[in-house]
Amino acid sequence: MTNPADGKKARREHARELARQEREAEKRRRKRNRLFLQSGIIVAVLAVVAIVTVVIVTSTTSSAVNPKNMASNGILFTGDGTTVSPVSTAALEVGSDPVATDTASLASTVNIVTYIDYACPYCQQFETTNSEQIQTWVASGEASLEIHPISILDRASLGTKYSSRAANAAVCVANYEPDQYLAVNDALFAQQPEENTSGLDTAALKTLVSDAGASSDEVASCISDKTFGDWVTSATELASDGNLASDTVTEFTGTPLILVNGQQYEGALDDADAFSAFVATVAAS
């Protein structure tokens, strides 16, 4: 005969086993849910990282553009006896260092290099005083001229960054219509705004450049889009850090910085005779 107590004991043990199995099943279900949740979070994070990376890379690569005809970060002009012509160079690859002008090929000329800011009144003094005679020397083949537009005076334009915008406009001309660069250079100084004013707006800049002779749609769009804005910033930083077109001058002292065969001119900016005498002295040395 079966003992009733044994039956109750068996039922209790069976119930306990069922409860244990249910607890184990619940643990496994919760574990799976945690894993699914963690995996989902990881996938979501990776997706966000991927999107952010694409945005950063896209924005970086799309805004970084180097201009043609400015491999040294300046535009170089030489002459053939009668005419001043820009020297053509290909646009450097993004991230490349500027390539210094090979002065060995210019050994028979006096090599004049200027670092200028289109918002700088002292640059205006030098340019309006000396531009004509420098271009005459270049046309005759006696000199070369290399102009480096930079922007150190954005603070003086009431937040409009006129210095950078004007430099970008000049670089647009160097890239698309380099034959018109000197005319645009002269026009930018002739119509230089007063310090601590907003300066010319974009529409006025485009009109100035067009009236000076660089009237292509490419130049106008380049000015509107600030295509070479990042390049201007980089070129300014390099010059300010002393990366100059000279073996002896390694300190940037402000604009205008004028080098003649690598020697810095520190005479009167509004005295054409003084600058001419300096050039003659350097040429004879």
UniProtKB/TrEMBL annotation:
Compositionally biased tracts (Basic and acidic residues): 14-27
The Thioredoxin-like fold domain, residue ranges: 108-273
Residue spans crossing the bilayer: 35-57
The entry's keywords: Disulfide bond, Isomerase, Membrane, Oxidoreductase, Redox-active center, Signal, Transmembrane, Transmembrane helix
Record bears the keyword Disulfide bond: yes
Annotated spans, Disordered: 1-30
InterPro entries, sorted: Thioredoxin-like_fold, Thioredoxin-like_sf
GO molecular function: isomerase activity; oxidoreductase activity
SUPFAM superfamilies: Thioredoxin-like
Protein name: Protein-disulfide isomerase
